[in-house]
Write a structure and sequence with these properties.
This protein has about 45 residues and is an all-alpha fold. The chain has one helix at about 1-45. It has a domain at about 20-45. The protein is built from 1 helix and no strands. The chain starts with a helix and ends with a helix.
Length: about 45
């Protein structure tokens, strides 16, 4: 029982870190797209 709990804890930590990494990557991509859109708007206005 204890061994299974340790494996579950490791799997949970790995899943949590993967989710955190995915969220960070998603927001970086999202902000890059938003910044690119804003830059295009600025160029069109000039």
């Amino acid at each position: 029982m204890v061994g299974g709990a340790i494996v579950n804890q490791q799997q949970f930590e790995i899943a949590a870190s993967l989710i955190q990494y995915g969220i960070n990557a998603f927001f970086q991509m999202f902000f890059r797209v938003v910044n690119g859109y804003d830059n295009r708007k600025i160029h069109l206005q000039q």
